[in-house]
Amino acid sequence: MPVTNSLSQDSQIHLAVVGAGPVGATAALLLAKQGYKVTLIDRQEPQPGPVGLGMDIRNVALSPASAELLKGVDAWPQKFAAAYDTMKIWEQWGTNDLLFNAADVDQPALGWIVQVAPLLAALWQQIRAQAEQINVVLGQVQSIETPSLKGQLKSQLQGPQGEKVVLVIQQQDDEQRVTVDLVIAADGAESVVRKSLGVPAMLIPTGQMALTTIVQTANVHENTAWQRFLVDGPLALLPANDANLCSVVWSQSEATCQRRLALSDEEFCRELEHAFESRLGKIQAVAQRQAFPLRQQLAETAMPHPRIVLIGDALRVVHPLAGLGVNLGFEDIAELLKIIQVNAHFLLDDPSSGLNKFARQRHLRSESMLRALDGLKRLYAQDKPAISWLRNAGVGIFNSQLWLKRQVMREAMGLSSKQ
Ligand SMILES: Cc1cc2nc3c(=O)[nH]c(=O)nc-3n(C[C@H](O)[C@H](O)[C@H](O)COP(=O)(O)OP(=O)(O)OC[C@H]3O[C@@H](n4cnc5c(N)ncnc54)[C@H](O)[C@@H]3O)c2cc1C
User: Fold this and answer.
1) Whose CA, among 44, 385, 396, 403, lies 20 to 30 Å from 34?
2) May I ask the CATH architecture of the domain 12-48+122-202+295-412?
């Protein structure tokens, strides 16, 4: 079924989700499942990603909690999700491996490495199947207007409860203005919604880029997510469905990244093998390499206006070293839905009454995650012998404390709220 490429006839909509990436698309499906009519706006349908060695180069690690959410909307791309039951972490100067096993928390898997293009395809297939509930609008959101913007410092913006907001959307040569009761902004790290409201974002520079690709290794990956902390940044080899293929996420300084992008395949494989201590034997083949600038950022608030919430990367961007970006976005949705369920009867008349709590809680959670990831990155960037000795001693102690490891694993798997 083709997507509906138009706005609702009266140019007045109740619930708009801006951005149909993994977070916005899932939010729209879950809201539709709860009976809401949703307008989902994205500048384009998902584009096929670069493919290498037979699979998408873009991959994300998803937790069991995220898998459950996607299964709940029939958008789990089973054939493109590789389970991992073990995680091995070690460092450049260390001797101890930090080990996590799914069996320690009585789970079949710690998580799944999921190919992004098939994930988006699965989400959009469900969206198209729900044309009654979800009106897809292909257009670029240009700005968002609230009457209270006029004459106010944008950063102090807190509009009156009753006032609705206006989305300005560019569709080919037409500019549409649509009045909306509640906007859920999932328009990514460069969120136009956030920027047009003048909401500042705290930026923690990483000074790093991520080089991503797919490699074929001589030894099988043992359904293990491998990560080595190098002084220049963490290197992860993540298992694919084929036992000899791994996706690579290699964080490093920009200059090193540019140099490694320019290497021949053969030179790159040898350098990667060396950095990875040949833990999976010889690197036999590599797909095309891609680089992404890495940043960490957090918007000043998750609710810049009583009728607007920010979720996913629009709210915060985290370093990929813990594979948390989409998972945190899915957590946003789960928490938002809880609030919406409780406040359903007055949600669209006075959204802020329930959403304040959501905004506070998600902002705090994002802040603590950002600080923790930044701390971890800095800790492993230290190559002073005393600090590396302490890190190793800490890893040894942590490995022997199963109860503590279980807590950490349950938290990372999104199981901490369950028994
Ligand atoms: C190298 C790397 C590795 C990563 N690994 C992991 C991992 O292992 N696990 C994990 O959970 N996360 C990972 N992430 C993070 C993850 O990719 C992001 O957190 C995730 O893509 C955010 O999803 P989103 O839907 O919030 O935003 P996006 O994916 O950015 O989607 C935003 C959507 O909004 C649309 N849009 C934007 N602006 C407009 C506009 N003005 N008008 C209309 N539409 C608009 C875009 O077209 C897009 O569809 C990784 C990131 C990187 C860079």
Assistant:
1) 44
2) 3-Layer(bba) Sandwich (3.50)
